[in-house]
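pasting input
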Amino acid sequence: MDFYQGKVLRLDLSTGTSTVEPLNMEWAERYIGGKGLLLRYMWEEIPPGLDPWSEDNPVFLVTGPFAGTNVSTSSRLIVGCKSPVTGVLNDSYVGGSFAPELKFAGYDLVIIKGRAPEPTVVTIKDDVVSFLPAQPKYWGMKTSAIEQALRDDFDENAKVLSIGPAGEQKIPWACVSTDQYHKAGRGGHGALLGDKNLKAVAVRGTGSVTVGDAKAFLADLWRMHDEYVLTDDNYWVHEEGTPVLVDLVNGAGAFPTRNWSEGEFEDAGNINSESFQKIRIKKRACYQCAIACRNVHSVELDGKTVMGEGPEYETIALCGANCGIGDIAALVKFNELCDEWGMDTISSGSVLGLAMDLTEKGIKDFGVRFGEVEGYLAAPELMATRTGIGDELALGSKHLAEKYGVPELAMEVKNLELPGYDPRGTFGMSLSYSTSDRGGCHMRSYPVGDEIITGDEPADTMEGKAAYNINGQNFSSMKYLGIWCDFWAIDLNQMSQLFKHVWKRDVTEEELALAGERVWNLGRLFNLREGMTAADDYLPELLLTKPHKRGPSAGRLIGKETFAEKTQEYYALRGWDGNGVPTEDKLAELGVDVRL
Amino acid sequence: MPHVMISRKKCTGCHMCELACSAYHEGAYRPSVARLYSECNPTTTEIKGHTCLQTGCAKCQQVCPNDAIVTKRITVKPKGFFESKEKVGESVEGFVLVVDEEKCTNCGECYEVCPTGVIHEHPDREVAFKCDLCDGEPQCIAFCQNKYVYAVDLKVDKKDKTLVVAAGEAGA
């Protein structure tokens, strides 16, 4: 079938063998691609209640139907698993060029199971799959080194997915890297791959992705890019990129500062978009993206040049303001260190901010303080290698705060650290975090978009926010079937125009909306099956009960009662019962083909 | 004579040009068989464009023992905007080097001499393949669509080193 390769590659690390099987096209029709196919395969492949650290817990690499074509922004790959951090589903998205290359090699999906007896690297050149020893050369390498080594040793055009030393040490927020600066950041996939003794997967594909009438497709795509993607409304993404959010979020009093103790950072002006533009040396793009949002920066730090892509907004928030860091050079360096050691920056900044808070409060001296650069820049290596303070920090925010008797200081949901929006300055984000299917995440629904960016929704009320988050979650689920990046502000009508090429028939907006909701409900069922309950749809209590004393969001509070009411409203509007369990009627209406 | 160039300073490494090139010529997306490419190092973010300089280079034609690289008249009228549009105009008349697949024996002489590495053996047919400017509407230029980038450009130079002219052509 056009757009799909129709093949799944299975890697069994325990035996060092691979097999190829047909893609389940019935599931591909019902769940389309990306997140939908991931969840349907997870449902089938993961025995209910499986220990995430079991060698039977698979890691999935999932593409979308448009990877490997000119469809802008849809080169994204999902790294998916039952997370060893949250115990629930985790779909982590990464740009770069790995997903298209995997399609050109002939696969829609890779399922990685087992545990290699020794550290291993897997290479895939079209239909030739090899398992190679990662020692002595590759194990221990940082991310830029392993990528270059595999381009040198295997294929100069290889695209490499790897873990850094943090993954080898099974740090809970170890990420999966590709094209050096691109990270499937959240949920501990890097730790799981480290546990499986898999250092890297390198792929080279020389085959094709068919689309039917290619010339007609090209003409239609050119028009769509012209009309929908490269528009004056959307060019901010290229001109500024995510740092544009700093002034907006800080101005709304929602910028997490010094372990979430404040919502406004006095040095935000040093790390905002304007400041980053001064050190920007070029723009870079993911594969098949016409927008090119990525900023390459270069700064001098202690007489040395630090050069690299990013940091993006979430890193600026959590590793900047949340650590009291307003020194742009230190921030760029910290980002580079996290990239090289292979760690998610949201969790890195969150855990470090907590450690600084514990130090400042005199609870435990970790030798790191808000705004002090020396300890700050020493931390990534310590965390990634579990040395010195790193050994305790590797507990993650939740367990570290619990250990010192201050669980209220941990900013996490389902044991996943929160990204860079304080719900006290943007109320809708409370439910966005609590009901996110993978724990503390801003990528499922994004009330910030209207509460802060456009100002179309009031930021200081919970009225209407249950419905708002449901719409957002359903829509992002649909978008993650595509898989489109958020920077194409695509709508259902535009998606339907693209899917017309896939299914060779007219596609309605309604059927796509339904697919998104179907997938969200499938995810909920999976999480419930794995033992999650409504009690896990929480928000750190402090965010509901302790108002900021100053700044634009001073004095504002959602309150525990309102939050509980809105959670129930959310369940009801979703067609779920009071315990957050989808009803039979709802599942039947959506065409979900599995049951608890 | 018209040819395509990728600006190493402007290119963002999105590879849209290679994708569109392969879809146009192969009827499916297959960038490993694209007629141009952008070499990107993800770590250093350095980029180097590889495109055919056409008749201004013509090394492939000069070494071909079978006269299989022929000079063909072409009118190039790119879709969309591109950096040099105001300089070169809406359309350019000129010549392009194309492979005569009847004559090509896949001997490989041209693969060795191409200074930009953009003429190769086709993986499915035992002949050389190279850039032909998409019959006058280069898809690489069309799909370098971001107005802040416009890295794939149509250049026109006066050099012409061609020797072998396609049947019916004159004045090349």
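fyi The longest strand of chain A covers residues 294-301.
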